[in-house]
Amino acid sequence: MAVAVVTGGSRGLGRAFVEALQEEGWVVVTDARTAADLAAVQRDGVTTVAGDVTDPDHRRALVDAAQQRGAIDLLVNNASVLGPSPQPHLSDYPVDVLRRVYEVNVVAPLALVQAALPLLRRSHGCVINVTSDAAVEPYEGWGGYGSSKAALDQLSGILAAEEPNVRVWAVDPGDMRTRMHQEAFPGEDISDRPEPESVVPALLKLLAEAPPSGRVKL
Asked: Residue 151 is part of a domain; what is its CATH number?
């Protein structure tokens, strides 16, 4: 039975993907900041671990939980933070907040990959690093989040070059109707954005077809 670790599984794309993987027969280990956040995804085949992805002990707990199920075939670095809302120009961006954005969006994903790599190498597994079009387009006001996702893109490409037995995809799911996207546009109507569930079939297709490592726009 295939085993996946999905961070940020309590809402948005993470929750939709956790539920789809479980329905497809995967064993899933997922997390969120609190146990209350994870109540919605607790079901047979899903192991939940509350904690912060920037905490080394929490990352170790995620890997240990997957190892107890026998493997890690898929690691999805989905957890991320936007930063301030509304988002400031870089000239006014609080540097202490920027450090937090990079800790969550760049450092934690790499650290979790490092912890999971022995199991990923053994299973010839896959890594999905969830990125954004803000990583490649210089949108005004998106300097903190966008630059963190650009760094994640670059890390993904280098990991792919260094780990030929592990597929590494930087996946841009596009705009979605999520809490984070609403925070990026406070007070605006984002009901025209698609629901996260609409992206899941493309993610399942990616896993089924298993193309070479690279950046994937869904």
From this structure: 3.40.50.720
